Amino acid sequence: MLAQYRMATTEQMHWVIAPGVRIEQTRRRLAWLRQEGLVDCVTLPQAGRTRAPTAYGVQLACEWPELRGHRPSRTVSDPTAVRLKAGHTLTVTETALAFLEDARRRGELCQPLDWIPEVHGFGAQRYSG
C-alpha cells in the first residue's frame, strides 16, 4: 500500500487496510515492516508518525503483479524530499481514503489499490480494475 500511496499516517493506513480491527494490529504490522527495512517512520509536526516506503520496500513491492507498471517516486530514497512533499502527499492519501470510505458505505467494491496517486501533478484517479 505504501509503495502506491507513497506516504500515510498510521491512522490512514489503518483505515485503508484494516478498518474493522483494532489499530494496534496495524501498528504491529507497520512495526514489522519497519524492522524488515521495507518502510521508514518519519515524525512530522503537522501529522505525527508518518510511514513511507524505503527504496528497498518500493523495489520489492513493484515486483508484485498488483503494482506492475507502477513508477515509484524518485524521492523515496531521499528523506529530505520526503519531508518536503509530506503535506501534499498526505492530502492525496486523505483523498483516497475519502473515496474508499464512500465506496464502502455504498457497498461498492473499491479496493485500496484501485486508487492511483497523481502522476506528474495531473491529479489522482480512481479506476475499477
Provide a compact summary of the structure.
The chain is built from 6 helices and 5 strands.
List keywords for this structure.
single chain, alpha+beta, two-stranded antiparallel sheet, globular
Note down, in words, how this protein is organized.
The chain has 129 residues and is of the alpha+beta class. 46% of the residues lie in helices and 14% in strands. It contains 6 helices and 5 strands; from the N terminus they run αβααββαααββ. The chain has helices at residues 2-5, 10-17, 23-35, 55-61, 79-84, 86-106, and strands spanning 8-9, 39-44, 48-53, 115-116, 125-126. It has a 3-stranded antiparallel sheet, sandwiched between helices. The protein has a two-stranded antiparallel ribbon with strand order 4-5. A hairpin with an 8-residue loop joins β4 (115-116) and β5. α2 crosses α3. The chain is globular. 24% of the residues are buried.
